[in-house]
Amino acid sequence: MRRRYVGLDGIKGLAIIAILLYHMQEQMLPGGFYGVDVFFTVSGFLIGVSLLRSLMNSGSLRLERYIPKRAVRLYPALFLLIPVIVSVGWLYDRDLLVSIRDQIITVLLGCYNWYAIASGQSYFDQMSPQTFRHLWFIGVLMQCYVVAPCIVWLMWKIRRSHLSALIPLALAAGSGYAMWMLYIPGGDPTRVYFGTDTHAVGLMLGLALAWWVTSSERGRSQSQRIARRVASVNRSGVADATPSMSALNGAHRQPNVVSEPLHILIWRAVAPLFAFMSLIALVAMTIIGKQNDFAFHGGIVISSVLALLLVAGTICQDSWMQDLMVFRPLAGLGKYSYGIYLWHWPLCLASKSFAPKLFPVPGPWPLIMAAVLTAVAVTLSWILVEKPAASNSAVFVILPLHKPSRAHIVRAIVVDALLAASLFGAVQGVANAPAKTAMQIQLEEQARQLEAMQRKEHALIRREVPKPPRPRFAMPAGDEMTAIGDSVMLASSQGLSSVFPGIQTDAEVSRSIMVASDMIQNDLSAGTLRQWVLVGLATNSEITDGQLDQIHDMIGPDHVLVLINAHGDRTWIPSTNQVLADYAAAHPDNVVLVDWNAAATANPQILGSDGIHPKLDSDLYAQTVKSTIAAWIKGNH
């Protein structure tokens, strides 16, 4: 009898919670991406168990059943998700459709992760809405489905050498080593995070665990085969009266009492404790973890090992961890985790775009909207598509020919109508997909206008200006201000020029604090640095006290440093905003803090669909700078 592994749904439920919070509220759970490694470990384990049981029962991998079963598990939900989401993008937000054709093709071919690597998409860059970016995970999983039968077959062939488990363990070690070596500290980790070769630790550990766990089943399977041979010999009348046969028959009449080996008893005693400790460690990693060097120089390997111990200690016979993992809400999330994972990310992107228009007042409306839409979509997907496909076939979803009930017919009509409408919208969406997001187009246009304006005002000639006297604390005119910033300042440059005519603005996409000191030094050397220095570079990287000290010392006491904080869902923004606030408080004589984050939070309707950049027709950024400087001057500075 096949054993059902109790508790796996609960483990998947915990993992999907971590991933959801990471994608929707990254600041709340910055290490939530470790939940992916828990999923990989569970998936590798289940794949391995399925293949090994097939080998034990039939001596074959039975790929004719294995491949369709995996396809039916993955593709029906995808065939609903893709046209629906593309139709929504076509109707309401064309930004969701940038590069959508290539995304669809590579998702369906199971190689989206390599497409994202080749095209330079960054999983950790939230600027542009890559609608199906989260499906890199499905690509890695599909590729594992292809490779796993070869690995398991090789393990099975050398099973008598006791070296079988070393094959996936060696592959796991090689994958972890490759991630370590290919990752460039401080660089974009997308290559090592998306790569199947560098992110297969959990999958391989899961295969190794499957080998160990099914060892007892292999022993029973061998005993059953021997018993069947003996029974066959007995029926043929050969060696009926041999002493060994009589002893065997007598043994079957005795109570079946099997003494467990000591190491098995010890493992059952300590495994739940290891699982619980691993769970605590994983939770801690999701809370304090970051997308830093540690994550790619061992953190992901550690999380995969912890996931291995968590799974092993939970599924262990009589494990008290099962009581925790069968908690119904948790197990329910795990049961429907695939659908939740598919739908949550594109609906989160759509909610960020729609919610500010529907609810112009501040609040967690995008999060609430995304959660509600995801719950509805997952429920409909399960009822209309996934469950019928799993119970019958993929064809049965749209054409219930085999003894359909009235409910099946009604369901199929609904599915067919939904697919027909969404496929029409998807075709239109792919055909009319823009090459760039509206915000990207606006930023490029703004950059051209800014350069033209600077040329017109001879700002690019870098005319020498007289050394400023000690600041006179009056509202500065534009020709007294130098502004250095990132794409948020670039989007606001028109407003800055309107509120502060003559301001010298130098803003660029993806710029960070790393370039500020060189830019200021160039202006100092040319004698063109103006008295009021605006620095808005908190969007793309964290800022340290040391970097601010360097800038503050360079400009000297005769200049006023105006620091503009950031608004967005990046993990470093809260800590960076706090550093800026503390620095301004520690240097009140010539440092001003502009709380752009508070202004943007209070006025979400002026932001673009990415929730980060202000719309080009808004001057809120500039007005926030002006009102902050006015309040600072009024405070007897």
Can you characterise this structure?
This protein has 637 residues and is mostly helical. It has 27 helices and five strands. It has helices at 8-24, 35-58, 63-92, 100-109, 112-119, 136-157, 166-182, 190-194, 201-213, 215-235, 243-253, 262-288, 293-315, 321-325, 328-335, 337-358, 365-391, 394-398, 406-431, 438-456, 487-491, 493-499, 516-526, 545-555, 573-586, 596-602, 620-634; strands at 481-485, 504-507, 532-536, 560-564, 591-594. The chain has a five-stranded parallel beta sheet.
Enumerate the strands of the largest sheet in spatial order, edge to edge or round the barrel: 2-1-3-4-5
Major beta sheet summary: 5 strands, parallel
Q: How does the helix and strand content classify structurally? A: mainly alpha
Helix content: 55-70%
